[in-house]
Specification:
There is one protein chain. This protein starts with a helix and ends with a helix. The protein is α/β, with parallel strands linked by helices. Helix 7 links the parallel strand 4 and strand 5. The radius of gyration is 19 Å and the shape is globular. The chain has one domain: SGNH hydrolase (Rossmann fold), CATH 3.40.50.1110.
């Protein structure tokens, strides 16, 4: 029996069976929270289910989306989430800043503070880019869109070019308000997030 135990220990050394847990905090607004859809239909839950189905059961996505939130709330909310010792931050804030016409220098400063604090805390950061509807004026919309890749370059963080890629502007993938994804829209967002998150797991 001892030789059998010895063979088992060789095949499965201590700690090999359990992968290190990976917690991904999705810090966002209503687009992350899943406004208008069930919690299990929002993109963080969908991405987690896909990863678990593929055997990556050690990965957990925390839906830290709050409807109506702006970049101003990001730093305080990140500090709260750090109590759970996450490893990755998916930062998806800024859309409400743009929709409300905020000074983008302030928005940029707020997002920079969140990114720096996450990096100083040892987190890998994945920044989600956003775009505005064309009726917000071409100059403001262009400056808003360019802010995200500029931040990603400045802080050397990974970038999802546009969180709502293939979803924004499609009535079949959005709620009647034309802004928030419906369940099918969140499935499309989940595909985008999964594609950019996977290399960092």
């Amino acid at each position: 029996m001892r030789w059998l135990l010895w063979l088992v220990l060789l095949a499965f050394p201590a700690g090999a069976a359990a992968a290190e847990p990976i917690q991904v905090v999705c810090l966002g607004d209503s687009l992350t929270e899943g406004y208008g859809v069930a919690a299990e239909e929002a993109y963080p839950a969908r991405v987690e289910r896909r990863l678990h189905a593929e055997g990556r059961t050690q990965v957990r996505l925390v839906n830290a989306g709050i409807s109506g939130s702006t970049s101003a709330s990001g730093l305080a909310r990140l500090r709260w989430q750090l109590r759970a010792d996450p490893q990755i931050l998916l930062l998806a804030l800024g859309a409400n800043d743009g929709l409300r016409g905020f000074d983008l220098q302030v928005t940029r400063r707020n997002l920079s503070q969140v990114i720096r604090h996450a990096q100083d805390s040892g987190l890998l950061v994945l920044l989600a880019g956003m775009k505005l509807p064309p009726n917000y004026g071409p100059d403001y919309a262009r400056e808003f869109e360019r802010m995200f890749p500029s931040l990603a370059e400045e802080h050397s963080v990974a970038l999802i070019p546009f969180l709502l890629e293939g979803v924004a502007g499609d009535p079949a993938l959005n709620l009647p308000d034309g802004i928030h994804p419906n369940a099918e829209g969140h499935a499309r967002v989940a595909e985008t997030v999964y594609r950019y998150l996977l290399p960092h797991l």
